[in-house]
């Protein structure tokens, strides 16, 4: 059983590839390397370099490798930058997903796991985010992910009575951190963990953006989940789709217990052994006080669980980042 992983040379995608291998499934990677890295793809895994906007390339890859399902991770995922680059965001995330679905239809592939995002909710004002919460994305990125979910839904409806109905689910995750393989680390210039790691490696002091939020320590609270747990959930979702088992249209992959930015900074100093006192900067516009999700549905259906403490999240990410320059 072969699964095509779009964006499989990226931080999250490369972890999904390894989790598929561990489960005895055969991954195939398509990635344009715009943010991914060829050396993140394990040796022996078929790697097709190209864009998901190329339908012919996708169809050829699916047919050549006998692909039976797709895990669609590829996309432009920077919410803040998407405000400045909305057209690029929609091209990569909306048109890209449409082309993936068209290629699947052309190649007769009927199962897809879609990497969605907590950004579809915008800035919810509830203590715990559940899947049925109204969707109010606050950025082109969040909007593009929500439209991606709609595309899956509509194609599922359109093909429901056919000989090849589309089976799908979307996984909405929050702040993905850590590493489950020292060969793979987060290289994003926009995510908290790599930002702090690069500051520490450069001998600089990390910054906290605002300390006057309505939280216990004044810094905003987010839902941090380990990339190894995220990858495992993708595999179980793929297995359920392949087996014809029922799945929900979407699942939150959340911890149910948020961590404040200050708590993350404390763990960074503790685990790295580099003492520092963060600089307090101004708030970023639009940053909510708290976003934390329940993962109850995913726990029920996808064996979802949070297996890592905050120190382990930091330690695995730090070790992978340091290994890259060893």
TrEMBL record:
GO biological process: galactose catabolic process via UDP-galactose, Leloir pathway
EC class (word): isomerase
SUPFAM superfamilies: NAD(P)-binding Rossmann-fold domains
Entry cofactors: NAD(+)
Enzyme nomenclature, EC number: 5.1.3.2
Membrane-spanning intervals of the chain: none
Keywords: Carbohydrate metabolism, Isomerase, NAD
Entry GO MF terms: UDP-glucose 4-epimerase activity
UniProt organism field: Microbacterium aurum
InterPro entries associated with the record: Epimerase_deHydtase (IPR001509), NAD(P)-bd_dom_sf (IPR036291), UDP_G4E (IPR005886)
Pathway: Carbohydrate metabolism; galactose metabolism
Pfam families according to UniProt: Epimerase (PF01370)
Family classification: Belongs to the NAD(P)-dependent epimerase/dehydratase family.
Residue ranges of domain NAD-dependent epimerase/dehydratase in the record: 3-254
Reactions catalysed, as given in the entry: UDP-alpha-D-glucose = UDP-alpha-D-galactose
Protein name (record): UDP-glucose 4-epimerase
Entry keyword annotation includes Protein biosynthesis: no
